[in-house]
Amino acid sequence: MRKSGFGFKITIWMTILGLVIGIAGLTSCSASYSPGINNTHAGENYARSTTQAGDSRMETDANMNTEEYNTIIENEFLSVLDQPLSTFSADVDTASYSVVRRMINEGRAVTPDAVRLEEMLNYFDFDYPIPEEGDVFSVTQELIECPWNKESMLLMIGVQAFDIPEEERPDMNLVYLIDTSGSMNSPDKLGLAVTALKLLTENLKENDRISIVTYAGSEKVILDGKSGYYKQDIVDALNELTSGGSTHGSAGIKKAYEMAAEHFIEGGNNRIILMTDGDLNVGITSEDDLKRLVEEKAESGIYLSIAGLGMGNYKDNKLEIMADNGNGNYYYIDTIEEAKKVLVEDMAGTLFTVAKDTKFQVEFNPAYVKAYRLIGYENRKLNNQDFADDSKDAGDVGSGQNVTVMYEIVSRDSDMKLPDIDLKYQEAGKPVNSDEWLTVSIRYKVPEETTSNLLNYPLVPDEDPGRASENIRFASCVVQFGMLLRDSKFKGDSSYSDIIRELERLDSVSEDKFKKEFLSLVRKVADKD
Questions:
Q1: How much is the pTM?
Q2: CA 323/CA 318 separation, integer angstroms
Q3: Is 24 helix (H, G, I), strand (E, B) or coil?
Q4: pLDDT score recorded for residue 423
Q5: With contact defined as beta carbons under 8 Å apart, do 507 and 474 qualify?
Q6: SS3 206
Q7: How many whole angstroms separate alpha carbon 53 and alpha carbon 508?
Q8: Is the pLDDT of residue 10 over 60?
Q9: C-beta atoms surrounding 503 within 10 Å
Q10: Which entry of 10, 159, 333, 519 is 20 to 30 Å from 92 by CA?
């Protein structure tokens, strides 16, 4: 009996010791993350932590991947006789390209629904004409033979917004809304968010006002309407942030709008900048409820910019729907270089809106065009009647930004086969005798106004169009790359080798660091294919 009792005591003590060790381990794993205060080595720390994680991190991500992307059902070819109008909202978001880039650089398979072709295109700057004085936009159109389908043609519509001179930019009332929940406990999440916001802070002016709101299990006001003159105070507040707890995002969003309203600047740039991985798990969490939340707030004249961070638990679907419905724009920051691009180099476009509720409507003439397919913009399509309805929300375009739209079109004399139209009660539309193949119409509102302005741009193709521009040649490479990543049924004769050969011929690729990086991504994928 004594021997048995002794064994029983040993078992108890071993169990207790195991529990203590387990608790210690859990405590260590869940310890809060602090981005630290060493500004000099912020970039080095990020690069070092990424490199050291290596394959083990990628394996963990693959085994525990809970990322969410909305399903994309690609646009089909539509008959012009049946549907002559194509209507959709402008989109200047670029998050998709950065997400795809990170997947490729980490050796991960690219999630097809992460590839949104319009965001891939709009990541890049194109050499579009600067608008005439007094104009909000310049619009260019180009039509060439389609590189991946000999039976169709490729149409590019390039829209360039005017750039507000720096001295004319209005004062800013910004709320840094930062997710500090436990899921942000990583250098490429909270650490990168803090670094990005410190870069933005360096460019503040004295009359700018900055508030900082954080959220985890609950929301917290860290800074309340601080003048941009006190940059170091703002930086110090950012450096003190730590992560831990659940993610009550809706509480933080409501508080951020409250703070933005409290310090609202008439005629100024009133905006919330949300930094998060989108992994909301407390309060309002469904896409429909988040949409309703930001739609209600959008009427207040306060804009929303969203910067996504991290991988593994990333909720792209929630962030995209908030940006699309909250007078917002949406970016993904995977490196310090990208943070500089979004918040420093492209700061004017990211933060200063020049045209709100911007909509496009393209009318095709059946005398020349048999069918068309809008490339991308699947989640930005509008009903035709929404185009002239000023109560319908649409995308906002920032200072100096460009918007690129591409169509694959089938000319009337093409041999390409399309499904027959069989209308029982009405006749299909009839061709109109005109030299115009199509007309691009744009509606937009000046930010302070509620009535839209209408612009019309007809296209009469040149009989001798000459050599295709570098703009459309580069854009066609981006589209083909995206279609190959999605394994699109419309990819036709696209191949990585053809894309690489074309990119290597373009001067703009060697002159633009982001286009040069794109070429390296195509090569990486081609090497694994």
A1: 0.86
A2: 9
A3: helix
A4: 64
A5: no
A6: coil
A7: 35
A8: no
A9: 23
A10: 519
Residues 262 and 293: their CA atoms lie apart, in Å, by: 19
Q: What is the mean pLDDT of the chain?
A: 87
3-state secondary structure of 174: strand
The model's pLDDT over 312-363, given as tens digits with 9 standing for 90+, comes to 999 999 999 999 888 889 999 999 999 999 999 999 999 999 999 999 999 9
Q: What is the CA radius of gyration of the chain?
A: 26
188 DSSP assignment: I
Q: Residue 90 has which token pair?
A: 């402008």
Which ranges of 308-395 does DSSP label H, i.e. alpha helix?
316-325, 336-340, 347-351
State the Cα–Cα distance between residues 338 and 275, nearest whole angstrom. Answer: 14
Give a three-class secondary structure readout of 132-159: CCCCCEEEEEEEEECCCCCCCEEEEEEE
Rounded to whole angstroms, the Cα distance separating 385 from 377 reads 18
CATH value of 78-107+116-164+354-528 in 3.30.420.40, 2.70.98.10, 2.60.40.1230, 1.20.58.760: 2.60.40.1230
Identity (one letter) of the amino acid at 483?
M
Burial class of residue 193 (count of CB atoms within 10 Å of its CB; 0-12, 13-18, 19+): buried
Q: Do 199 and 343 form a contact (C-beta atoms < 8 A)?
A: yes
Instruction: Return residue ranges of the chain for CATH 2.60.40.1230.
Output: 78-107+116-164+354-528
Which CATH class name applies to 167-351? alpha beta
Token reading at 282: 């407390």
Give me the percent of the chain exceeding a pLDDT of 70: 84
403: Cα separation from own chain's centroid? 13
| Three-class secondary structure of residue 372 per DSSP | strand
pLDDT tens digits, 204-222: 999 999 999 999 988 999 9
> What is the full DSSP assignment across 458-502?
EE---SS--SPPHHHHHHHHHHHHHHHHHT-TT-TT--HHHHHHH
DSSP characters over 389-440: -TTS--EEEETT-EEEEEEEEEETT-----PPP--SSSPPP-----S-SEEE
Tell me what pLDDT residue 297 has: 83
All CATH 3.40.50.410 domain ranges of the chain, comma separated, are 167-351
Given a contact cutoff of 8 angstroms between Cβ atoms, the answer to whether 8 and 167 are in contact is no
Q: What is the pLDDT of residues 67-102, one digit of tens each?
A: 999 999 999 999 999 999 999 999 999 999 999 999
**What's the Cα-to-Cα distance from 263 to each of 149, 276, 418, rounded to whole Å?**
54, 23, 57
Task: Write out the two tokens for 78.
Answer: 């539509």
SS3 of residue 168 by DSSP: helix
List of residues 6+ apart from 380 with CB closer than 8 A: 88, 89, 90, 91, 118, 324, 395
